Amino acid sequence: MASPFALSLPQPLRQFFSLFPLYTHPPVDSPDKALPVSSPTLWIHVPWSTDADVLSSDVECLKWQAYLALRGLSDISIRWDVSADGALDNRLPNLHIPLKTLSGASQEVKAQDDGEGELLPAHLIPEWVDGRVGALDGLEGYANEAARDESRAWVSLLEGNVHAALMLHQPSSLSFLEIISPYKAKPRSLETVVTQPPAPLFGISSLLPSYGTHVNVEAIEQQYKEAIASLSERLGTDKWFLGSSSPTALDALVFAYLHSILHSKEHTLRFEVTRRVNLVAWERRIQSQVRGAFRSAQPAQPSS
Amino acid sequence: MSGSKLSPSITSRDLVLHIWPKYDSVLSFDVASSAVLLYLQLALPGQFSVAYSANPKLPPAGQLPFLTQGIDHASGLGPIVSYLQKLHHAHNLDAGLNSVHAAQLAEHIAHVQANYGDLVNHMLYALKDNWARVTKPALVSMLPVPQRYTVPARIRESHKVRLQEVDLWDVPEESEEEEKDEEEEKHHRIVSRKRRKKKSGTNAGPLQFKQAFGREKVVEKAKALFNLYDRLLGSHRFFNGRETPTTLDVVFAAHTHMLLDLRLPDPPVTTTLESYPRLVVHCRAVLSSAFSPGVPLPPTIQRSKLSSLRRLVPWPKSPKKHKLRRTVSTPETSTEAQQAGQRYREWMLWIRI
Q1: CB-neighbour burial class of residue B86 (10 A; exposed 0-12, middle 13-18, buried 19+)
Q2: ipTM field
């Protein structure tokens, strides 16, 4: 653009500037590279035993694993080396998918094979699954409208009473490294799951500022027992919950909770479920189906 | 136990229900308390008494409603209902349900307590208008002098965690409040009106949109819940087509009663509720069958509302203190009766501290 009014660098300055850069360092090879994603990968919490199992030890992650498996997807890889504060919204599980599997992807994106991926938070997983295997109808796989309404109530029973009992008995391991680390992944506290807010430790009307919670342990345990009793009653000898002909989201949720209860270290929790043979048999049957849908992307490491 | 020589309050093993006090035309200020009151009125009419108390430190679990019978106690809606179901002279509200309905009862109650309870708490504690004009004055009127300045705010904070988790804390109002505080501070520091006007002008648009969108979400949630229970109720008088109310009816009606009879200035959920007339009729039906004309009302034990500074201090609970304020008559002579009487008095002291 040779405009007569454009300023240009005077010649000596231009020569001087052309000496730079003096030296260009070669590019640094970092070991932390984003690996190309070729198949959908689910980021979860650590499984119970890392070399033998692919099912997560956290109820949320397990619930989504069961959902993916029961919707009919297969060959999904698993990784558990990502900590919770690296996930979207600080909540695992996240699903890392290749771009071409997105339902809204254009033709040229589908033709690409460079391993570009998209990370989905948990609440967008059903949409993605609908894009892969076809959307569910208005009844969401339940037998009728009454069953669908009832499923909402079962969901809140499980996520309220049963989850509270599980959280109460979760071992809170506090290692030194966790205390001094600046990255705090705060798990959900018990107050968010119980309906009536528990009183602070010293009482609500004391001079001392509110600290801690005084949890009504017997109430939670008793509600948990009633919940498991009614769950077992309702299942009876059906193949899937509420008499559905194919697995639904409620089945995934129930499986997740039963599996976590059976693996928990607290005897009272486990005993309630093991007493009920139909629940144990049902869980075992679903377990093999869920396990078969996943494969571990993580090679077994002798020391991490 | 030697029968007639004992004091009547020990042999009859009086059921005393401690709940939050009445306010306006609501049975009790807390939903769980009114649910328990309705349940007792239906299961054991005339055989219990009610003590209105605003001191949640009374029971061991630190929460009202709380039921005592002699030495036994139960705290919270679930434990109280299961305790009452074990009493042989109590009328079981859930008798006669087939096994499917009985299994569904527990899950429906949990669903109502979780979702409907969250909506009621949102109306009472999260909406600033309601909090400032109804809830806070109500709590202040119930509490004695040292507590009334600190406890209402603490109660509100305790609901905040759960409501934030379910997205019902209505964040746009809070940030609006923060903005206003900042503006007021600035006004004190820099006396210039133009800056304040400019700030409120630019932010009014997005904040109002966020607020309207937040309220829409609440109304959507309420509608989903009410649709479900409207379908479940159908055209029957009570849920599951029964003739008498079950536990689910009692719990649902307690929530509805709270919303309908507590006149709140900012009522998004109540207006949604009023568009479901069958649910309103259901609530009235439950209340009228609990307080029907032939059924006696429970006597109330008036607790003296002394402002006790001692309540502020987290005092260790031991039965050794002897500030005996008697409301029970002294037992007669037999040693066994005296021992039973002594244990009972110690228990009364323990729960009064």
Answers
A1: exposed
A2: 0.75
